[in-house]
Amino acid sequence: MRVFHFRTFGVGTIHHAFIRDVTIMETAAPTAAPPLETSSPSSLAASASQAASDALDEYITASGCLVAGSSRGAAVRRLVWGAHPTSGDRIDVLQLTSPRGGTAAITTAGARLLYLREPGSGVNVILTPPSLAAVAADGHYLGALVGRTANRVRGAVVRVGDVDYPLDANDGGASLHGGRIGFSRRLWTVASADVGVSGDGEQAEAWVTLRRHSGDGEGGHPGGVSVAVTYTLGPGGFRVAAATVNDGGAGPAVVNLTHHAYWVLATGGGGAPVSVLKDIRLVSSCTRLVMTDAACVATGELGDSPAGLNLTGDGPLGVAADCFLVGPPPPVGKGVSTAARPVVPGAPGHTGGGAAAAATALSTAALPAPASLAAPVIAPSGTDHGGLQLLAALTSVATGRRLRVWSDQPGFQLYTANGFDMAVDGYDRHGAVCVEASAVLGTEEATCVLQEGETRVQTTVYEVLPPSGG
Fold it and tell me: What CATH architecture does domain 3-465 belong to?
């Protein structure tokens, strides 16, 4: 069973989610539009995120220290990026290289993914901040590992047993993504043993593990936990595997992590991202909808949901941006009849999520105690994705580029960058989309509590397929 949480911003905003136990049926990528790499290479070079990734990738390749693998295959390089503008702490950046030439960069500031570049073309498929100073100032969680509790917790209070714990409220009356100083604003560490290359030849994978301890009371959260997140780049895509252990001694702990990359599947003239509200076709395997209120907070109720979701607004599908689609998306140029389910008329953008298990399921695994957790925390699984289920498949109508999201989590949040303002923070509103796999929103008390000695493992794979991909 899968759940999808969907939120929209606007007057009378509603939040939702889905649960489903059927297989995703993807439609063929559109063939009318030429591939992005060949149709507008100058536009890609002009985009701010592409230019930032070009510069940083070249810098790390030239100046970084090779700490695992070889210069001709899968490899890990490490570089001191600089001092944090506020704390003065040393900030490192690590570059993962796949055998086919794709690269990813991760920083110890917020355990953030800074860029993800396709093999061959070098196309960067996520939003990339232009500098370390921009990372420090970022309030949009670009590429960050988000926690200790992802998304909005109603009333900034979580109940464990019969005890209420007030959390740090940073979004109206709710606690969002861990509060004002969540995991995205914390310093993470990478020991010399926490990098490596696994496998051989074209199947080799490069990985790095980042760690931190979150003490009892951090952001108001009960219990102390140690977190180890392993990022892996290989032929199967970009893998995020986070293991959280309740250290013991402080009672039950609450934790719900997610990854917050902003995916850019198309850019237009001048390098500006194409609005996802006019471009992205999304198919989800979710069958239930997580209901939300006007403040985008999950109510805990689950409603019926469609099998497919259209984000195209007044784009090629000719469907209003406030509609869900039941069943597969219609052919390009065709409208929607009674299959459309209105949500919020005129709502500018979407926020929501989905799941692959029962709403009360807790994904746990028996792992060693924190002191003996050796990297990689989660062994790389290659292209079979280790039995993960396909939560969502997104396709750019403009380019045919696709994003598949595989996970062991029971839900995901969909966010279409509604809060961006080019004049304020340099990013286009609706220019990217987040797919945040996590526990079903509104069920934190039932699904996110770790007793002393327990471990929770959350694994998600993001697989990007270029227009000519399989």
Answer: Distorted Sandwich (2.70)
